[in-house]
Amino acid sequence: MAIPILNELSEELKRLYVAGSPLAKGDPRLSKYIAPLKKRGEKAAVFNTLSERIDALTNGSEGTSAEALMDASLLLYSLRYTQGSTAVTGEAKSPAYPPNPVSTLKIPYSQLAEAIDILSKGSKEHSEIPETLYKSGDYRDPRLFPYFVKGITDSSSAISNYVEENIIPALGNAIVPYLEEEFSIQGSKRHGRIFKLLHIIKGKGILPLAGKAATEGSAPVAAAAITALGEDAENEEILLAYAKDKKAEVRGSAFTALAKLNSQKGDELLLAELSKSGISHIENALTLTKNPKIFRRILDETEILCSDYKKNHSKLSVLFRILARSNDGEALKLLEKKIAAVVKTESIYLAFSEFDLDNLFKILSKGERKHLELYYRIACLPDKNSVLACHKFKVAGILFSTEKFFDECHSCTAQNLYSLYDIYKVRFASHTPDEQKRWDRRWGKIIAEKQPQLYELIYDNDSGAWKLLFETIKKQILQNKNTRLYPQQSGLLGWLFANKHPEAETYYKMLLKLGYSEKILHEYLSL
Question: CA 368 → CA 171, 229, 337, 374, distances in Å?
Answer without folding.
Answer: 26, 32, 19, 10
